[in-house]
Specification:
Elements: E1 13-16, H1 20-29, E2 34-37, H2 43-48, E3 56-59, E4 69-72, E5 76-80, H3 85-90, H4 92-97, H5 99-106, H6 111-114, H7 119-125, H8 133-138, E6 142-147, E7 150-155, E8 160-162, E9 165-166, E10 173-179, E11 187-194, E12 202-212, E13 220-227, H9 237-242, H10 250-263, H11 274-298
Bound molecules: flavin-adenine dinucleotide.
Length: 305
């Protein structure tokens, strides 16, 4: 029974194990009873509200590699699962090469929350509204996963199955996400529409990344991801395709934004109606594409590596 007057956490056992192998086995042996956790900013709220009642919470913040934030000019940025969003925002390499991710992190709630909240937690929570997921999608993020059978890597695209549902299996622990180095001269933006400027989930979120592309006649390539307008974080493929292989004009951008709106399948909820969301997808996608196009245009001719 949930006490709505004085909400509180249900009882649980806190589990801290020494190795990833032990943690994966514990989680696999206690499927349905145990969950991994990082900052806890989703887990504890869902437990308080009665949506989750795990018997065991398995802390994975100290485990091998989860605290590392490392940039390699060839391999890209590896963000350990336990690295909080403020660390990413403060990273000089993230600021230089992954500005769209930094912008997305900054849009999450408040500084205080971001000292706990992690990008990997945002991804594993699998909310379609997760603010940092779009940036990780357009940057072609790869998840590093430890399981009872060893380790594997999975592209983030295809990871989400529905609200709160992912391809993770019992015993799986995401240890990090890697973001390849974007092409030199790439520009991006994240536009988030919320009910207020602080601590609210998005009504609609639009991430756009534009990259110089050697293929004529366009010389540009655009990636788009949408938040809060489908059961999963959405890549509007038709909109991306409309921008491919032709000279960019305001009309082409408008057409792509309309396609993004058509591809979105939002619901009515307390934050906004489906109809409003579809209109905002069109408007924000057009704004984001124009902003990125402008930034790319200003730095022409493209810098080379
Ligand atoms: C006041 C408030 C404001 C918020 N505002 C925003 C906002 O503006 N934008 C936004 O996107 N989110 C927001 N959130 C949600 C939340 O802060 C983010 O989703 C955050 O990034 C989650 O990270 P975490 O480390 O706290 O995850 P946790 O709560 O620790 O975990 C999240 C989920 O991932 C699973 N998990 C954790 N670690 C692993 C792992 N290593 N492997 C596999 N599964 C794992 C957990 O079991 C859980 O299901 C807000 C939350 C609060 C409380």
């Amino acid at each position: 029974m949930i006490n709505h007057t004085h909400p509180t956490l249900p009882e649980f056992d806190y589990i801290k194990l020494d190795t990833l192998v032990e943690a994966s086995h514990f989680l696999a042996d206690h499927t349905d009873e145990a969950r991994p956790f990082l900052g806890g900013t989703d887990v504890f709220v869902r437990m308080r509200d009665g949506f989750l009642t795990p018997r065991f919470l398995v802390d994975v913040k100290h485990l091998d590699g989860t605290n590392s934030l490392h940039f390699d000019p060839q391999r890209g940025l590896m963000i350990g699962a336990a690295v909080n969003m403020n660390r990413v925002i403060a990273s000089p390499e993230a600021q230089e090469h992954y500005r769209v991710l930094v912008e997305a992190c900054r849009s999450v709630a408040s500084y205080q929350l971001r000292t706990r909240a992690t990008i990997v937690g945002n991804i594993c929570n699998a909310s379609p509204a997760g603010d940092t997921i779009g940036a990780c999608l357009v940057l072609d993020g790869i998840l590093h996963i430890h399981s009872t059978g060893g380790t594997r890597q999975e592209p983030l695209a295809g990871f989400f199955l529905g609200p709160g549902r992912t391809r993770l299996r019992p015993g799986d622990i995401v240890t990090a996400i890697t973001l390849p180095v974007p092409p030199v001269g790439s520009q991006g933006t994240y536009l988030k529409l919320g009910r207020n400027r602080l601590s609210d989930l998005s009504i609609v979120g639009v991430t756009v990344l534009g990259c110089p592309d050697p293929c004529p006649p366009l010389g540009l390539r655009f990636r788009i991801a949408l938040a809060s307008v489908a059961p999963v974080p959405l890549i509007p493929h038709a909109a991306e395709a409309a921008l491919k292989g032709q000279a960019i004009t305001p009309e082409i951008i408008h057409e792509a934004a309309c396609l993004a709106s058509e591809e979105s399948v939002p619901i009515d909820d307390v934050r906004g109606s489906a109809r409003y969301r579809k209109l905002m997808v069109r408007n924000l996608t057009e704004m984001a594409l124009n902003a990125v196009w402008q930034k790319l245009h200003e730095q022409k001719p493209w810098r080379t590596a």
